[in-house]
Amino acid sequence: MKYKIYSKNKASHFINIECSIENICSQEVELQLPAWRPGRYELQNFAKNIQKFEVFNENNQKLKASKITKDRWKVQTNGATCVVVKYNYFANIINAGSSFVDENILYVNPVNLCIYAEGYINEPCTLELYKADNQEIAGLNDQQKLDNDKVSISFNDFYHLADSPFIVSSNLKHDFYEVGKVQFNIWFEGNLSRENLHQIKIDFKKFTEEQIKLFGEFPEKTYHFITWILPIPYYHGVEHRSSTMQVLGPDNQDFDDSPPADIYIDLLGLASHELFHAWNICKLRPVELLPYDYTKENYFSTCFVAEGVTTYYGDLMLYRSEIFDKNQYYKELEAYYKRHFDHADSASQSLFESSWDLWLDGYTQSIPDRKVSVYHKGAVAAQILDLHLQRVSEKNRSIDNVMALMWQRFGKSENGTPLKGYTLQDYKDICEEVAEESLDWYFEKCIFGTESLFDLLNNYLQDINLQIVRNEEGLVKLEILS
């Protein structure tokens, strides 16, 4: 499959896509637009943004294309060995998982708008982009210049392409740092001075080194932090195999403020969280998500590992790397304690059940006392596990050992061997191996149970001289023990 992405009329917010599919040997071929995107486990219905959809043979003769589902087409090839699919996609939303085009920028999450042909999803593919001389492309590796305004990028397969967001713009600010042999690129679109990049680079390198220390290696040769700063309040990030896309705002805060402005704290927390995903979900993945099935829901019950553990580590890594001092770290702990205990402490669902139900209403307002957040309660459960492992081992073992073993056994790929997904039982087995005891009680209470974790968390917080209390209104507050 060979793709071209451009915009004939940028002011219209339509992106044009051409996909040519070669070496066809059948009388019909089925084309699929992804129904969802990795990192957000809900159906997205991207096909609703397609205005025109046409298919041609190599002689530019139109072929019959009929919809067979809301986002799948069947094409009669009439003997053609190559077909070219031409369509447009309305891109007028800016968030970390969307696509957008106007006179100044082309921002694309390929999973939104790139179709694939059934039977070709594992084949190498290429993308051709158009750019002006004064524009750069953020997020894509191995860019090959074709002529003055064309660039070609190769991908291992459609999964690789779908997981590679990019921005084409003349306003990008760029810097990079290296840890070992890995280059980490920092890209900013929006209102950010180049002077701010210096401190950002210093802090990003610190938490990157701390995370690599845990796992022992980085799973990619190159990585991109892509951040779009908006003039309005915003906070959103999405993980990808060799990058993260982040959208933050408002842009009227100074990144150089002391103490740091809220937007800089948000940037650090988001970037640390998303980088941890480079291991935990992009490579270290539940067995149900290997490979991704883009046609329907991919139900799995371990999102509390993918998101809860990552939420816990995002701020912990900033504290360990001394970017956050103790007060700032406690502030972040209190934030997710409050988000869980103030709003979902009486929820009827367990973490296990809410992981599964992400596909139902995981990202929208629920009916009262139904679901819990895999992020916030998941982080509370991860901290309880961490403090318990430290307690029973006299601080010789921790959740670090759990994640390192998970990586070695289920995430790390040796000599091109395919990834091996983990099950809930695999995670439990490794936790018990590190604990050197049964953890049935932990999984029954924290993962499968629905009773409050308030007292249990307090039992373990005393090990680090902390406690949570409720004020007269019943709202949670974190206190330091004397």
Model description:
The protein is of the alpha+beta class. The chain has 3 domains: 2-161, Immunoglobulin-like; 172-273, Neutral Protease Domain 2 (Neutral Protease, domain 2), CATH 1.10.390; 279-482, Neutral Protease, domain 2 (Orthogonal Bundle). The chain contains 13 helices and 23 strands. The strands form 5 sheets. Strands 5-4-8-2-1-12-15-14 form an 8-stranded mixed β-sheet. Strands 17-18-19-21-20 form a 5-stranded mixed β-sheet, with helices on one face. It has a 4-stranded antiparallel β-sheet with strand order 6-7-3-11, with no helix packed on it. Strand 18, helix 3 (196-215) and strand 19 form a beta-alpha-beta unit. The protein starts with a strand and ends with a strand. The model has no long low-confidence stretch (mean pLDDT 96).
Give the arrangement of secondary structure elements.
Blueprint: E1 2-6, E2 14-21, E3 28-32, E4 50-57, E5 62-63, E6 65-69, E7 72-76, E8 83-90, E9 100-101, E10 105-108, H1 110-113, E11 116-117, E12 125-130, E13 136-138, E14 144-147, E15 150-155, H2 158-162, E16 166-169, E17 173-179, E18 182-190, H3 196-215, E19 222-229, E20 234-240, E21 243-249, H4 262-276, H5 303-320, H6 326-341, H7 351-356, H8 358-361, H9 376-392, H10 399-411, H11 424-435, H12 440-447, H13 454-461, E22 466-470, E23 476-480
Parallel strand pairs: 1-12, 18-19, 19-21
Antiparallel strand pairs: 1-2, 2-8, 3-7, 3-11, 4-5, 4-8, 6-7, 9-10, 10-16, 12-15, 13-16, 14-15, 17-18, 20-21, 22-23
Helix pairs in contact: 3-4, 4-5, 5-6, 5-9, 6-9, 9-13, 10-11
